[in-house]
Write a structure and sequence with these properties.
With about 230 residues, the chain is of the alpha/beta class. Helix content is about 45%, strand content about 15%. The strands form two sheets. It has a seven-stranded mixed sheet with strand order 5-4-3-6-7-9-8, with helices on both faces. The protein has a two-stranded antiparallel sheet with strand order 1-2. Helix 2 runs parallel beside helix 3 and helix 6 crosses helix 8. The mean pLDDT is about 90.
Length: about 230
């Protein structure tokens, strides 16, 4: 490679390093303001397609016995997860359990043999007992996306971590708001994740799984259990 080509390559690489974080931030801010709806098999969900792609990679790789979701919204993510379990030919006993303080009409109308729904607060001890009674043996994945307040998210992280085995993921969704908007830095999900990681060193933030996409709604919220 001649001198000018090396210089151009180096300049291009530097330009990417300088502009990529700004472009990523602008995209995520625009996404949150527009909050577009996507669908999966007709069911509505408000997730970035690149994040859903990461989920399918994790499900294929870790083979969870169950997936627990708090904050199910319209239910599209539940149907997506159940369908991924079908595609990897998971045991019919392997389930997706969705919890919401108030189930929407669309979520309540979901029909899939793997899906179980619970209406109530995700931190209510009675709800937690119902979740435990439904789950098959083994360990699974948990995705948290209900009340975004710091104290509630931290309580969820503490309660649901025991469902997650070594190598599995505890995902705190929509943590990118704390990264993008200063007012949320110490008030919401990202702050709760920081608190949680300080007290439980069995979990680490896995940034490698999303950084290749440059963006994720769950910035620093992909928590992998390592021991």
């Amino acid at each position: 490679m001649n001198g000018p080509s090396r210089v151009l390559r180096a300049a291009f690489k530097l330009g990417l390093q300088l502009t990529t974080p700004l472009v990523s931030r602008c995209f995520l801010v625009g996404y949150y303001f527009r909050r577009p709806w996507y669908t999966f098999l007709g069911a509505h969900l408000s997730q970035l397609p690149v994040d859903m792609h990461i989920y399918q990679e994790l499900i294929f790789r870790t083979r969870p016995s169950f997936i627990v979701v708090t904050g199910v919204d319209q239910g599209g993510a539940l149907l997506y997860f159940a369908s991924m379990l079908d595609l990897i030919k998971a045991d019919p006993a392997h389930l997706v359990v969705g919890i919401d303080i108030k189930l929407t009409e669309r979520a309540a109308a979901l029909h899939h043999p793997r899906i179980r729904l619970i209406e109530g607060s995700s931190t209510d001890p009675r709800v937690l007992e119902r979740v435990k009674s439904m789950l098959p043996p083994g360990t699974g994945m948990v995705a948290l996306d209900s009340d975004p307040s710091r104290h509630h998210v931290l309580a969820e992280l503490r309660l649901y971590r025991e469902f997650v085995g070594v190598g599995q993921y505890l995902v705190c969704q929509n943590t990118s708001l704390g990264h993008l908007i200063p007012v949320f830095k110490n008030r919401g999900r990202l702050a709760a994740v920081r608190d949680f990681l300080k007290e439980d060193d069995r979990f680490v933030t896995d940034t490698d799984i999303w950084k290749r996409n440059l963006i994720s709604l769950h910035h620093r919220g992909w928590l992998r259990r390592v021991r």
